[in-house]
Design a protein that fits this description.
Elements: E1 8-12, H1 16-28, E2 32-36, H2 39-46, E3 53-56, H3 65-74, E4 83-87, H4 92-100, E5 105-108, H5 113-130, H6 132-135, E6 145-150, H7 154-166, E7 169-174, H8 177-186, E8 193-197, H9 205-213, E9 222-227, H10 232-240, E10 245-248, H11 253-283
Parallel strand pairs: 1-2, 1-3, 3-4, 4-5, 6-7, 6-8, 8-9, 9-10
Helix pairs in contact: 2-3, 8-9
């Protein structure tokens, strides 16, 4: 059975072989799968994207799955993210503890892949029908475009890049503000959209935004600011400086796609209008 590609999963397991085997199988079923080798990395990735389901191992070094569940439960941003525990621990006490901490399901491994996929599908479908107003949002047809992704965190960069490629975008990446400016200045064809993080070393997102919008050569490029900072002052500053939109982390994939496609469409329409004006000047 092929599932909706909009469903995104985070697989958290310290065993590299398990991560590779399970993630490949789930990807073949149509899921978009991100992986984390431990609790800290998983929590960091959850802070970027609102995954549809987290598959969480319990016995991991540095931070076990119980602690991950506790931190998620304490976080206003993360507590609503559904978690399916996938663990070799089969005791009722462990199951009860995980469910009490907010896990939506508990699968004992080793488990047949077909069984695991069925449980995943059931959890996702339950969530979809439980919140139909949220899940019924339809994703726009991708228009494609050249996108510069500016993000200093490699895990975040990977998540966002895979999403953009899924939406038919051609993606270049920059790890800080200075590299972003070099990319913009060195791009022969130019960019349709820049996804720009705010908090970065060397040069922050606001400085990059100021460079883009103050330059007659680049100020036509659409810019979406992406940040965990969600206070109204930060958002207003970005918009007043010329940003086209602002997306908070962790982002909702459908919402981000709508904003990305909308900005690219608007930018391409502006380019067409500018081209027509030049043609009319030539005729006059």
């Amino acid at each position: 059975m092929t599932h909706q590609p909009a469903y995104s999963l985070l697989l958290v397991d310290d065993n590299e072989m398990n991560r590779d085997m399970v993630s490949r199988s789930l990807a073949r079923s149509g899921y978009l799968v991100a992986t984390a080798a431990g609790g800290p990395a998983a929590l960091e990735m959850m802070g970027v994207e609102g995954f549809d389901l987290v598959l969480l191992d319990l016995m991991m070094p540095e931070m076990d799955g119980y602690r991950v569940l506790e931190i998620m439960r304490e976080s206003e941003r993360l507590r609503a993210m559904p978690v399916m525990v996938v663990s070799a621990i089969s005791g009722r006490q462990s199951m009860a503890k995980c469910l009490a901490l907010g896990a939506c399901d508990y699968v004992v491994k080793p488990s047949e892949m077909d069984v695991l996929k069925a449980r995943i599908w059931r959890s996702l479908e339950y969530r979809r029908y439980a919140r139909p107003q949220e899940e019924s949002a339809s994703e726009p047809e991708p228009v494609g475009g050249r996108v510069l992704l500016v993000e200093d965190n490699e895990a975040n960069l990977d998540i966002l890049k895979r999403r953009l490629v899924q939406w038919s975008c051609v993606v270049d990446c920059a790890g800080d503000g200075l590299e972003a400016i070099e990319r913009i200045a060195g791009s022969a064809g130019g960019y349709d959209l820049i996804l720009l993080d705010i908090a970065m070393p060397k040069m922050d997102g606001f400085e990059v935004l100021r460079f883009i919008k103050s330059s007659p050569r680049y100020n036509h490029i659409a810019v979406i600011m992406v940040s965990a900072l969600d206070d109204s002052g930060t958002i207003m500053r970005a918009l007043e400086m010329g940003a086209d939109d602002f997306v908070r982390k962790p982002f909702n994939a459908v919402e981000l796609n709508i904003r990305v496609q909308s900005c690219i469409r608007a930018k391409k329409l502006r380019d067409q209008c500018a081209a027509w004006r030049e043609r009319l000047k030539g005729l006059s």
